[in-house]
Write a structure and sequence with these properties.
With 89 residues, the chain is mainly α. The chain is built from three helices and no strands.
Amino acid sequence: MAHGIGAFLLSAVGGYWVLERAARQKGQLKRVGQLLGGLIIIVSLIGAFCQVLCLATGSMGMCPLEKPKRGFFCPFSGKPATSESASNP
């Protein structure tokens, strides 16, 4: 589980690198680079937060935001909610 947190934090560093490279560009490339870098950082930090929350709550292997009874899909859990659990309220 801890290696997943490290991967998310490394990808946040990669997002910062993209932001830094985008600052040197001009026009559309600069805007696209800033958007992409910011998106990478945000998704990485959310993923790291989910991993830390899993460790803190003791729900190893399950995303605490996942609600299979309502058909919610957490992109960080790696498995979608089943259609059977989504159909039962």
